[in-house]
């Protein structure tokens, strides 16, 4: 996982991103707390352990 920034800061205000990756799909913003608590699911799920390790280092 890499930390990146959008060149266009208005993209942070978008609620949903539509894309095609073999099929039509969408992505939304989630808080780390929503993911770590299990309220929301992150794909691929192997990224959850990366977030947990990163949160411990704070």
The geometry reads as: globular
Oligomer: single chain
Task: Give the ordered list of helices and strands.
Answer: EEHH
SS-derived structural category: alpha+beta
Q: How do the strands of the widest beta sheet line up side by side?
A: 1-2
Query: Biggest β-sheet: count, sense, barrel?
Result: 2 strands, antiparallel
Number of strands: 2
Distance between the termini: 16 Å
How many domains comprise the coordinates? 1
What fraction of residues sit in β-strands? Answer: 15-25%
- What would the average pLDDT be, to the nearest integer? 89
Describe the structure.
By secondary structure, the protein is an alpha+beta fold. It has one domain (9-56). 26% of the residues lie in helices and 17% in strands. The protein contains two helices and two strands. The chain has a two-stranded antiparallel ribbon. A hairpin with a 3-residue loop joins strand 1 (16-20) and strand 2.
């Amino acid at each position: 996982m890499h930390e990146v920034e959008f060149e266009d800061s208005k993209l942070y205000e978008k609620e949903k991103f539509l894309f095609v990756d073999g099929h039509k799909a969408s992505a939304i913003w989630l808080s780390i707390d929503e993911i770590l608590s299990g309220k929301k699911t992150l794909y691929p799920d192997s990224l959850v352990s990366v977030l947990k390790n990163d949160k411990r280092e704070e």
